[in-house]
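Usage example:
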Amino acid sequence: MAIPVNILILDDSSALVEILEHEPALNHIVFTSHVVDNKNEYNTYLENQEPDIILADFDLPSFDGFEALSMARGFNANVPFIIVSGNLRGDPEMEAMRGGATDCIHKDCLARLGPVVNRAIVENRNRKTLESLEGLVEDAAERSLAEERIRKINSEYELIFNSIVSVIIGVSRGDVITHWNPYAEELFGISAGDIVGHVFSELGLDWSWERVYMAIADCVVTEEPVRLDDLSFNRRDGKTIILGLTINPLKRSANEDIEGFIILGRDLTQRRFLEAQLIQARKLEAVGQLASGVAHEINTPIQYVGDNLNFVRDSFLKLGVMKEVMDWCFGQIESGSKTGNILGKYLGDESKEEVNYLMSEIPAAIDEALEGVERVAKIVRSMKQFSHPSQEEKRPADINRAIGSTVIISRNEWKYVAEVEEQYDPDLPPVPCFEAELNQVILNIIMNAVDAIKDAVEAGLIQKGLIGIATRRNDRWVEIEISDNGTGIPEDLQGRIFDPFFTTKDVGKGTGQGLAISYSIINQKHSGLLSFSSTPGRGTKFFISLPLEDT
Amino acid sequence: MKKRIVFLDDDIKFLNGIKRVFRDMGEWDIITCLKAEKVFQELAEGHVDVVVSDYRMPEVDGLTVLGRIKTEYPSVHRVLLSGQVSDAVYNESLAVAERYLEKPCDAEMIYNVINELMGG
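Running the assembly step on the lines above writes:
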């Protein structure tokens, strides 16, 4: 149903209303009309209602049409305002039109009233429609600008999200995957389409879910990003991937709850591979450095093993000859010949001395040869133990034996400058470790101790070096202590000794990687602690703590 | 006169082995020393034909000992018998030792080298 057109009539009679009601031109229009005849009423009406059209008799007693027009314009610049007047001709009419009246009708021509009102109504309706259309157009323009901006932001965000070479996974509080970027698709071999909207724990990866959920739990409790390093899984193509993840809480503001997590991840496979290679290279380097020393350690016992065996063989030949002579003599004696007796007596004195010598020397020579063989075997065993094949994971090891081996194969490096005092706790349980890497750390610290002792001897601080090595158990940890009475570490350098490439040695003598690698082997690979205390001029103590249980 | 051969090494077992194996080889007196001082004592006290020295020892290295002998007792023959396998040691030894041998070494070879040095 059409909304009635609301016509305000300013008139001191109902003449105009009657004309309107009987006007055939307005037959099709439903309208309501309201007649006012004074300024106050007019004003009140304008304040409270919104007329669609105003008809004003120009010749009212209380105020004239001009005033009525400007009052109407004060409320609404566009409402059609039609003046009806008996006097209006010429100038006043023009003036009224200039003041914004829509039309002027002389009382002689009231027949125009219907069509004029009709036109005003139509025009007003059209204007209103146009206005609202204009508004729509303006809104639309604004909205399209905003949309363009959002599209741009979105596409930038998408560009970043798609091209970043890190895993980005969004997980809702309800454990549903909300984001899965192309790098994640590539790294995990799972497409976003297959996984977004699925429950995170149903990802189908064989990584340690226990560690992942522990980290997530940590993240929920602390509301802080939680790092999860060296998380490995087997990809569908069979490749083992090692990841470093950070689980970041998603929160809008401090007092709101966590909405979910953004999991950022990097592929550490290549890096770990290079690190392992570096450690392996360092191991080979250490073995190479030790090789000539070890050769020296082995060559001397081999020499006396050979000498003693030669001696034993020759001695037996000699004893064999002597026995033959004796047998001949005994034969002569038995046959009653005196020659044998005399010869036997003559030979007896010299032989007795020789036999006595051989009887005491042969066992000694054999013992020393055996000791030599044992020494060589021990060095070879130690060498083997030192360069223990690389392991994928920690295995329980007798670290007393491991350290002992390292001491043996490095003997040639320290034996001319220092004594080594070993105090191993005999009740030490097997310690989960990467044995070859641990040996490397021990060797490194021993070699540093030897250098510090050499410097201290040269500086006249000490006569002879002393390297103390001890192991002990401390609750759920095993501690290894390696001390020396060398020069110590100057205080201003103490904070830097674990820095990569830090060295105090001459160019070509040290790579400055030894302690940095030792630190990473103990603290990262073993979740242990490598620390030290040093007094310049007195010596240094290194402490290695290794956890007995895997954390 | 019996030839006197001095062996210097910091390993008693090595010296024992040498003593045993050389006992019946040639008409030599074998004198074994654990320390360099004893070598110089022997040199000072009487006649020595050959000194065979190890290279690495705790107090002084074999090349230093042989160098000193070369200066102080130029007529005494000098052999380096080293367990240290290294070109550097070999090159250094050329200046002070007449012969260079590496452990382990056949007793017979040591014997031959000594014999040859003494013009035997």
